[in-house]
Amino acid sequence: MSVLDKILEKRFFAPWREGRRDDPASLWPDSNLELYVTAACNQNCEYCYLVRHEELYPREAMKPEIIKKNMKIFLDWCMEQGFSFHQVDLFSGEIWHGSFGWEILDILLSYIRRGLSIETVMIPTNASFVLSDRAIAEMSNRIEDYQRAGCRLQLSGSIDGGLSDGVTRKGKDSRLTEEKNSEDFYDRFFSFWQKHGFLFHPMVSAENVKYWKENFLWWDEKCREYGYDAFRDVMMLEVRNPGWTEENLEDYKDFLDFLVDKFLKERCSGDVEKLANHLFLTDIFNPGGSGYVNFGLTKADSFQGCTVSDMLTVRLGDLAIPPCHRMAYDGLLYGRFKVEGGKIVGVEEHNPQIASRILLQDSILCSPGCDCCPYNSFCLRGCYGSQQETEKDPFMPLESVCRLFKGKIDFLIDKFDALGVWGILEKVSPANARYEAVRETLQAVKSIREARV
Fold first, then answer.
1. Which terminus of the chain is more solvent-facing, meaning fewer CB atoms within 10 Å of its CB: N or C?
2. Of the candidates 108, 144, 107, 129, which has an alpha carbon nearest to the alpha carbon of residue 42?
3. pTM higher than 0.85, yes or no?
4. Beta strand pairing status for 84-92 and 152-157?
5. What's the pLDDT tens digit per position in 430-441?
C-alpha cells in the first residue's frame, strides 16, 4: 500500500465505510466527496479561476461521454466499497440548464436507488436554468425524485445580486448577460429558491466591493419579499484573489461598518448587549442559515477555511484526484484512480506530500507567516489555488489577501471596542457555556492590539 493509499484510507475511505455513527470522534460528518464534473460554463465571471486557467481541466477530458463513463466507473467502485456519504458536491462551470447536466443527475440518482447512501447532494449554480420553463421543470422533477430516493438535492445560489451581477458575472454572450440581469430572472430565481428552501452565496470581490452597500440593500429587499433573512441566509464570501488594494479595502471596511450598524439597529434595537450576545454567545446565525457571517470575528480552525481539508475531489474527465477543483494542476494532483477492464483497481500515487500537508497537518502552524501571525486566531486564510497561481506555491500567503483579512480584523476589533462589545464580554460569567470561548476571543484581541502598537 502506497503512502497516498494510507492517507486516503485514513482520512476518507475508512470513515465512508463506517458511515454515520453516534461517536462524536467519528470523521464521517467531515469526510465528503466532490465530483468535479466539467469546467464548461455559460458565464465569464471576472474573478473565476475556471475562466482564467483552462489547465485546471484538460480540454481532451471534457467530453461528455468520457465524463459520464468515468462517473459510472467511479460510482461502481463506491458501491463495491460500501461507502456512505454525508454530502456529495457536484462542481462544474454551469451545466444544469441542459441535457448533459440532467444526465449527470440521473446517473447519480440511479446509484442512490440501487443503494448508494448519500444524505445530501449539493450543487453551486448560477441559476441560469430558471430562464427556461423546461429546465425549471427538469430540475424540479429531479429534486422530487431525489427526495423520494431518500436524498436531499440542494442548490446554492451563486449570484452576486442585482447591483453587482452585471459588473462581475457576465454571460458568454450579451443576450445571457441581459437576461440574467433582468427582473424576470430574479423573480424566477427567488420563487424557485423559496419553493425549495435553498440559500445563497454571493461573492464580495475586489472588483465589486464598492457596490456592496447598495447591493446588500437589494438583497435585503428581495429577502424580505420572499421570506428570507439577508443577514442569516446570504453568505457573503470574500474572494481571496490578488487585487485587494488599500482603496478597495477601505470600500470593504465601509461596507462592514454599514452591516454592523444596520444589524445593531434592526436586529438588536440599538442594544449593544444584544449585539454581543448574537455575535459571540449564541448560534443565532447558524441553525438553518449560511454558516458564515462576514462581519463577525469567528475563531479560526486549525484546518483551512474551505472544503479542501474535508472533501475528496475527483475530476471525472480523467479520474484525477486534485486537492480541490482550484488546485487541479498537474504538479499538485494527489494521484489518479487506476482503471483496468472498466473497473477501478487502485490509486496511482503522484504527490503524497501535498496530501499529507493538506489532510493531516495543522494549516496555521504549517503555513509560512501564518504560524507566528497575531491575526491567526480569526483569519480565514488564503486560497491554496490562488496562491499557487500567483506565487507558484500553494502554501505561500498573498500579500493582498493578508492585507484584506488584517484590515478587516483590525476594523472589527476597533468597531466593537467603540460600541462597548469587549467590555460586555469581559463581564461574562464563568457559568456561561461560552465562557472559555469568550476568554480565548478576548485574549486574541489583546494579542492583536499589542502587536499593532
1. C
2. 129
3. yes
4. unpaired
5. 999 999 999 999
